[in-house]
Amino acid sequence: MLGKLSLLILISALLCYWMFTVPLVKVDLDEEYTYIIVGSGSSGSVIANRLSENEQNKVLVLEAGLEETSNWMVDVPLAVPRLQQTNLDWEYKTVPQKHACKALNNQQSNWPRGKALGGTSNLNYMLYVRGNKADYNDWERMGCDGWGYKDVLPYFKKSEDNQNQEFASNMGHHSKNGPLTVSDISVTSLADTMMKAFQQLGYRILDVNGKNQLGVMKVQATIRKGQRWSTAKAFLRPAMSRKNLHVATKAHVQKILIEGKKAKSVKVIHNGKPKIIKVKKEIVLSAGTVGSAQLLMLSGVGPREHLKQLKIPVIADLPVGNNLQDHLCTDMLTFLVNTSDCLTQKNSETLAVLMQFFLFGTGVSISAGGIESIAFSKVNPDTSEGLSDIQFHNFATHFGTNDERLVEKNLNIKENVFSHMYGHLLDTCGVLIAPTLLRPKSTGTIRLKSTDPKDHPLIDPQYLSQPQDVETLLKGVKEGLKLLETPSMKSVSARLNDRVLPGCEMHTFLSDDYIRCYIQHMAIGIYHPVGTCKMGKASDKTSVVDPQLRVIGIEGLRVADASIMPQIVSGNTNAPCIMIGEKASDLIKNGK
Questions:
Q1: Which residues contact 5 (CB under 8 A, 6 or more apart)?
Q2: How does DSSP classify residue 384?
Q3: CA-based angle 517:125:392, to the nearest 5?
Q4: Cα 478 to the chain's mean position, in Å?
Q5: What secondary structure letter does DSSP report for 368?
């Protein structure tokens, strides 16, 4: 009892210290600002910091959610599953999927998106992955001048504070002393076991953010001194003491008010009261792939026929909401292992573990959501040389280790399916090797459900609508199965969870048809939505913004977040979003 009381006192003291030392958000807003930024996520926080460096710029950030400090677990990297479906989450869902998600309730995928200062950098698994340099060269070839790898690399480096001395000394690819701390994170011996297994399959151990991506490495994550290092901590809060930066929470923007093809002001509900705030120069939408697309359409910028159906006056007929892309992974490669050095609820949520984290910033709690290493693979022969089409997220845990069945709830898996596949694995040690589809051919849409900004839009990623995506994931699963034959995995007696997935009983276990069936039932989005405000040439009818991120045909309005990506990057999306924020800031400051 004394131990629990001591922990409560410690946590209370830490929270009180945090609450009374962080800068307060703005309660009373001015009538006009030089720049208004809608959204304080991975891109918006960066832009707020950079634009407010100039004292002549009066900058306002409007965040629909709360301060991230409203949930103490946000600081604990391993607690990431406990942050979904909380006050930090918009709690979106897709519409029922025709070709995928068959093992999910109503065939709908949950889509957590951040709703707090720092946005989704509060909810993500914190991996620092830039993507493949060819991704950005492809963007340039698609008409995005100034977005080739040589152009974006300086912006990745501008933010970076890499704690790996070897990486940081490689000034060609990395840097240190930026605001975004990037740390090596692994907490179990299974990190080495999995690394060696990939190495024994021929993968090189390398820096996947360096010269080449194809290979394997231990996780690097946006974690500083053991704590999640969100963009709120790295960029926004350090700037909030500036008198020319105002940050408002509980400020849900309803509409951009556009007069004569020029964005003039925003209509916002702030602390429950409506307000119109004018802008002198520009409004920057950084509300994310869902939020930015929704707000543009509510403001009359979007597909003409869709807006007419909702009786929204059309100001600009642009393909907003099209080109939606996301990464899919599958849990099929769950390996049970003979070791006690793994991550389970029983060994990672003890008082001793929490005390170690809060007192010293060490222990298993600093794990990036259980991910210990990542690997990039080329499984399709027609994938260009040097490109990857599968990423393996390698966890020192599995879906069945939590007695509250958090994974079942977070992923919306049917109860009977989860019980059958994982109910017998509580507190068992295992690893999850999650092959992830990096270059999906399937694209979807976001459309308004109604003209009410409080109504979540209709999100239809159209997962696996292109058969090639199933085939690529199939090859990824078969590549991952080879790990079981490596000496490293045999050293821990690794064996596959061989429960047959309900709905796939008609197929021979581990046959190609069985794996295809499994993918169609249990391929799950990993929350990397991009593309709904596509960047490209102004003359390209598929573009929403030009390479300067200006909304085509509208003056004084830009979009800067994951929605502008013309094609999804080959890797996790948080670092690219931060890069977009850095580059957007320079575009705005230079008047381009």
A1: none
A2: P
A3: 45
A4: 26
A5: B
Between helix 467-481 and helix 512-522 the angle, nearest 10°, is 110
Are 386 and 213 in contact by the 8 Å Cβ rule? The answer is yes
State the Cα–Cα distance between residues 83 and 406, nearest whole angstrom. Answer: 10
8 A C-beta contact, residue 369 and residue 77 = yes
- Does 99 participate in catalysis according to the annotation? no
In order of 188, 191, 396, the CA distances from 430 in angstroms are 12, 12, 6
Classify strands 495-496 and 334-336 as parallel, antiparallel or unpaired. Answer: antiparallel
Query: Active site residue: 246, 270, 327, 528, which one?
Result: 528
Strands (E), 532-583: 557-559
pLDDT digits (tens, 9 = 90+) for 416-439: 999 999 999 988 999 999 999 999
pLDDT over 90 at 15, yes or no:
no
- AA identity, residue 60: L
Name the percent of the chain lying above pLDDT 70: 96
Split at pLDDT 50, 70, 90, the class of 592 is confident
Structure tokens at 108: 């709908």
> Contact, 10 vs 359, CB < 8 A?
yes
pTM: 0.95
| 548-579 pLDDT, tens digit each | 999 999 999 999 999 999 999 999 999 999 99
